[in-house]
Specification:
- This protein has about 300 residues and is α+β, with helices and mostly antiparallel strands.
- It is built from eight helices and 18 strands.
- The protein folds into three domains: about 90 residues, Pseudouridine synthase (2-Layer Sandwich); about 130 residues, Pseudouridine synthase (2-Layer Sandwich); about 55 residues, Roll (Archaeosine Trna-guanine Transglycosylase, Chain: A, domain 4).
- Strands 1, 2, 3, 4, 7, 10, 11, 12, 13 and 14 form a ten-stranded mixed β-sheet that branches. A four-stranded mixed β-sheet has the order 15-16-17-18.
- The protein is globular, with a radius of gyration of 22 Å.
Length: about 300
C-alpha cells in the first residue's frame, strides 16, 4: 500500500508530551499528523516525563541545535527514603532508609547547596554512549562503567511542597542537567535517599508551557484539515527570537547566501544574530566575526 505523500511544512510545534511515550514516538506521531517530509525534536524526555517537547518541522530543524543548548525548566516530585536503580519510579528498589524528622529549614538549606555551577555524574540509565553503546543498554546487562562528572548550572531550585515523605520542586537549569541525578544527590544530602516519581518540563528557552498542544488535541484538529494544524505552528525564527535581528540591504543578502561574510552598518559587534532580507522573511542564523562582519552559519532554503 502506498504511503501518503509528505509535504514541506515548516515551523515549530510546542508539544505537551504525555507520560509513557518516548520522545521519538511522540515525534513520529506529530510527523504523521502533519504529513511532514522532515521533522526532529529538541532534547529527549524520558517516557516517565511529560511536558514541553519542541518539534521542529521542515527547515525549522536547522534551529534544533540552538534549542538543545538552551536552558530548561522542570517541575518534579521525588519520594524520600527510597533509592532505585534508575533514579526514578521505573527502577528496582535498591535501598530504603528512614526519612527522619526533616524540617523545612533543612530542606531549604539542602536545595540552596545545589544553586550555581555543580558537577553531575551522568546516570547509567541515560542515552550517553560508551564505545557506540548507549549507557542504558549496558546498565540493563548489569554492566556499570565509570562516567566522568559534567559541569552544569542550576539557576533556580525552589521547594513547592513537602508532606513528610515527598518533595515537589521547581527547577531552572542549563542544558545537560539530569533531574534524576539531582533528586538522587538531594536525597543523599538529606541522608535518606530519594528517587523521581513525577517529572514535567515546563520551559525550553525561549519557549514556555503557555502554547503547548497535547497529542489528543492535535488529533482532533487534524480532523479539520492540515490548514488548522499549520495554524498551531510557531515561525522558524521563534527559536532564536531572543537574539538581535539584522536586516540586510542591497547586495548584502546576495553575498551572504553565497556563504560570504558581509559588513552591515549598525549591526551588533559580537555574538549570534537573526538574519532578514530587508523586511522580508527569516533568512537564517549568522555570527559576528572579530572584524565586525557577519558570517552565515545556518541559512534556510529560499
Amino acid at each position: 500500500m502506498n504511503s501518503r505523500p509528505r509535504r514541506p511544512v515548516n515551523g515549530v510545534l510546542l508539544l505537551d508530551k504525555p507520560v509513557g511515550l518516548t520522545s521519538n514516538a511522540a515525534l513520529q506521531a506529530v510527523k504523521r499528523l502533519y504529513q511532514a517530509a522532515k521533522a526532529g525534536h529538541t532534547g529527549s524526555l524520558d517516557p516517565l516525563a511529560s511536558g514541553l517537547l519542541p518539534i521542529c518541522l521542515g527547515e525549522a530543524t536547522k534551529m534544533s541545535g540552538f534549542l538543545l543548548n538552551a536552558d530548561k525548566a522542570y517541575r518534579f516530585t521525588c519520594r524520600l527514603g527510597v533509592t532505585t536503580t534508575t533514579g526514578d519510579a521505573e527502577g528496582e528498589v535498591l535501598d530504603t532508609r528512614p526519612v527522619g524528622a526533616l524540617d523545612l529549614a533543612r530542606i531549604e538549606a539542602a536545595l540552596a547547596g545545589f544553586i550555581g555551577p555543580i558537577q553531575q555524574v551522568p546516570p547509567m540509565y541515560s542515552a550517553l554512549k560508551r564505545a557506540g553503546q548507549p549507557l542504558y543498554k549496558l546498565a540493563r546487562q548489569g554492566i556499570e562503567v565509570v562516567r566522568e562528572p559534567r559541569a552544569v548550572t542550576i539557576h533556580e531550585l525552589r521547594l513547592l511542597r513537602f508532606d513528610g515523605t515527598e518533595l515537589e520542586c521547581e527547577l531552572r537549569c542549563s542544558k545537560g542537567t539530569y533531574v534524576r541525578t539531582l533528586a538522587v544527590d538531594l536525597g543523599e544530602v538529606l541522608g535518606c535517599g530519594a528517587h523521581i516519581t513525577a517529572l514535567r518540563r515546563t520551559a525550553v528557552a525561549p519557549y514556555d508551557a503557555a502554547r503547548m498542544v497535547t497529542l489528543d488535541a492535535l488529533r482532533e484538529q487534524a480532523e479539520q484539515g492540515l490548514a488548522v494544524l499549520d495554524a498551531l505552528l510557531l515561525p522558524q525564527d521563534s527559536a532564536v527570537a531572543h537574539w538581535p535581528a539584522v536586516h540586510l540591504r542591497g547586495d548584502a543578502a546576495f553575498y551572504l547566501r553565497q556563504g560570504q561574510p558581509v559588513l552591515v552598518p549598525r549591526a551588533p559587534t559580537q555574538g549570534w544574530v537573526r538574519l532578514y532580507e530587508g523586511e522580508q522573511p527569516f533568512l537564517g542564523i549568522g555570527e559576528v566575526l572579530d572584524d565586525g562582519r557577519i558570517a552565515p552559519r545556518r541559512l534556510l532554503a529560499s
